[in-house]
Specification:
With 213 residues, this protein is of the alpha+beta class. Helices cover 26% and strands 33% of the residues. Strand 10 and strand 11 form a beta hairpin. GO terms for molecular function: transferase activity.
Length: 213
């Protein structure tokens, strides 16, 4: 992962192609709301942040307004003090990030909401790794569902993932899972993240956006 300053983003944005996916990790405070997202998208579109207009679709996913939504697709997620943003041309990406922390109910949540084969696989994981594996499954499923445009309301049990040796979408209700790309991200030592999209394989370039002094 590379670190860059805000004034360098426009140069990096020019390198976004139909063969690449750009992912950005940045510090985040909830009171900032969507300001960091608009600022980053503005750098890609050549717009001032205040000129970037976002609207929510029927499932709550933010989108750019016309005509900008024809040129750039994105998704974002935040957890505690970090946000992660994915930007692409020609595909609709989904991304999710979660902070690593104790989750004593992870197995109960998996048994209740995940596909039964995922829950069984999670139960077989060494207890010392179970919470991280749970988060890898959770962020992977969220990323796919956000790329699908539906979110958690679609149902976490309507898709099945495996995480080892690499993340893989085996089944998605009503769709061809073989057409999907799913990748585990390693943003830092304190977070787990995943990105997904429907379409051909692309390279993923990832940066940390440094705070300005």
């Amino acid at each position: 992962m590379r670190t860059t300053l805000g004034h360098d983003v426009a140069g990096i944005a020019a390198g976004l192609s139909m063969d690449t996916i750009h992912v950005w990790l940045l510090n985040y405070r909830r009171e900032q709301r969507r300001a960091p997202l608009r600022a980053l998208l503005g750098a890609y579109l050549g717009l001032l942040p205040d000129d970037v207009v976002l609207v929510d679709d029927e499932y709550g996913r933010p989108e750019l307004t016309e005509p900008w939504n024809r040129f750039l697709q994105f998704n974002w997620s935040h957890s505690v003090d970090k946000a992660i943003i994915v930007v692409a041309h020609g595909v609709t990406p989904g991304i999710d990030i979660e902070r690593i922390r104790p989750r004593p109910r992870a197995m109960q949540l998996a048994e209740r909401f995940f596909h039964r084969e995922e829950a069984a696989a999670l139960a077989a994981v060494d207890e010392s790794q179970r919470e991280r594996t749970f988060l890898e499954l959770w962020t992977g499923k969220e990323a796919v569902l956000k790329a699908l445009g539906r979110g958690l309301a679609f149902g976490l049990n309507r898709l099945r993932l495996t995480m080892e040796p690499v993340p893989h979408l085996h089944w998605l209700d009503g769709d061809d899972a073989s057409q999907w790309q799913l990748h585990r991200l390693d943003p830092d030592t304190d977070h787990v993240a995943s990105v997904a999209w429907r379409g051909s394989s692309r390279s993923i370039d990832m940066w940390t956006l440094a705070d300005r002094d």
